[in-house]
Amino acid sequence: MTKRLRRLLVIAGAAVGVLLISGGWLAASILQSPAQREAAARPPAPKPIVAEVTEGDLERIVTVPIALVAEATQSFALPQPRDASLVVVTDQQSVPGATLKAGDVVTVLNGRPIFAMVGTFPFYRDLALGMEGPDVAQLQRSLAVAGYPIDDDGRFGRQTMRAVESLYEAADHKLVLPPPAPTANSPAKTVSGPETETPTSDVEVPESLRTPVVPMSELLVSPVLPARVASTPSVGTVVSTETALALEFGGLVARAEVGDSAASQLTSGMPAHITLPNGDTVTAEVSDVAPSTGNSDEGEKTSTGSTSVTLTLGGEIADDYRSQRHHASIVVAILARSALQVPASAVVAESGGRSHVLKREPDGSFRRVAVTEKAVLEGRSAIEPSQQGALKAGDVVRVG
After folding, report:
1. Hey, which residues does 339 pair with through a beta bridge?
2. If you compute the radius of gyration of the chain from its CA atoms, what whole number of angstroms results?
3. CA 55 to centroid of chain Cα atoms
4. What is the DSSP string of 62-91?
5. What is the pLDDT of residues 205-232, one digit of tens each?
6. Cα-based angle 315, 320, 321 (whole degrees, multiple of 5)
7. Beta bridge partner(s), residue 229
8. Euclidean distance between CA atoms 91 and 107, whole angstroms
9. Range 45-52 average pLDDT
10. Is the peptide bond before 212 cis (omega within 30 degrees of 0)?
11. Does 106 fall in a domain?
């Protein structure tokens, strides 16, 4: 038998085999009984829907949008030099976000520094050697806080003057000298006018003999320092009575504006948590719930119709998150503590007030477990098994 003939016989055999298999399949399909065809057409039996048993507090939550802000913000009018027809910001020493301490230069107006001082009242006069009073004592206390330890005896002596000079030198500025004045023994001339006679002098006190003064226009008083600079006028700003520096005090708090529905559920002391964009969670507590107020066109306090909610933070939050919007989840009620939880549809009610769930066994079957339903909230049930240990977190129960 030649090779060619053997090859033809192999190909023919394979073809016959294929025909026989196809024919058998076709015959089996044609010769199926009606019951077999009906069974083949039926969809597969649905698998039971299941859920995992969890454990924790069943809480009623109110979620509100919040902003992270300073605990308090205050605006300060910038003190302006006397007898200046135009006051301009010539240098910006403290930028928004910076920490302002006692003795720091807040800003520079007409080339002169404005120093941050801590105190309870604004300075009401220029201060110089030999003066006494509560304003001198306030200056001394501020200098001590700024790192120039001196006694706050209320007397402007040599020690206080040296501390002031050091303050100005550290800021690359010099103290102001008072305007020239006639010497006590200089001959005075009289200039006659239509109605008055004014004594003048050609002899002035030499600069080396004049005592420097601390102008009240170069001291800005804040009740608390250090503080965070919220806003400050930029270089080139023409200063008016409306020009102000804004400082922030205290740590960050969360604030929310809510409507009547949410406000009616909130009270001080409620726990909360804030989830940050990076996934971190910070605990918080409602510290204040009060009607929001604003200013009318006449400057009077008026209600805005909403409620302001303040939350005290239980952890640190980076300043980077200030400009972002967040949400706080406030726990307004705890219906069950440390309870096993399942979907409410997994609990089957029985007569007599009893209930059960169907727990999946290792072999895939389901076993009835008697439970007591303690609370239901938004599709979740807190349950307790009638037999201790019959159900635990991580078990799987049938739903529906």
Report:
1. 56
2. 42
3. 31
4. EEEEEEEEEEEEEEEEPP--TT-S--BEEE
5. 454 456 899 999 999 999 999 999 999 9
6. 60
7. 247
8. 6
9. 89
10. no
11. yes
Clarify whether residues 129 and 264 are in a common domain. Answer: no
Same structural domain for residues 364 and 308? no
Same domain, 234 and 258: no
d(CA 400, CA 342): 11
Q: Is the peptide bond before 215 cis (omega within 30 degrees of 0)?
A: no
Say if residue 81 is exposed, middle or buried (CB neighbours under 10 Å; 0-12, 13-18, 19+).
middle
pLDDT at 170: 96
DSSP 322-346: TTS-EEEEEEEEEEEEEEEEEEGGG
* Number of neighbouring beta carbons within 10 Å of residue 344: 16
- From the list 55, 54, 52, the residue with the least C-alpha distance to 398 is 52
In DSSP terms, 326 is beta-bridged to: 66
Q: Enter the DSSP assignment of 159.
A: H
Which residue range is the domain that position 265 belongs to?
A: 60-68+250-334
The candidate with the shortest Cα–Cα distance to 270, out of 324, 304, 322, 314, is 314
CB 142 within 8 A of CB 102: yes
CA 285 – CA 331 distance, rounded (Å): 9
Residue among 213, 211, 212, 222 nearest 115 (CA): 222
Q: What is the CATH number of the domain that holds 267?
A: 2.40.30.170
CA 239 to CA 252: how far, in whole Å? 30
Query: What pLDDT shows up at residue 267?
Result: 95
Q: Are residues 259 and 323 in the same domain?
A: yes
**pLDDT by residue (tens digit) across 193-208?**
444 444 444 445 454 4
Is 384 inside any structural domain?
Answer: yes
226 falls within a domain: yes
Torsion angle, CA of 169/84/98/288, rounded to 10 degrees? 130
Residue appearing with tokens 């609370």: 375
What's the CA gap between 18 and 7, in Å, rounded? 17
Confirm whether 197 is domain-assigned. no
Count structural domains, the chain.
3
Amino acid letter, 304: T
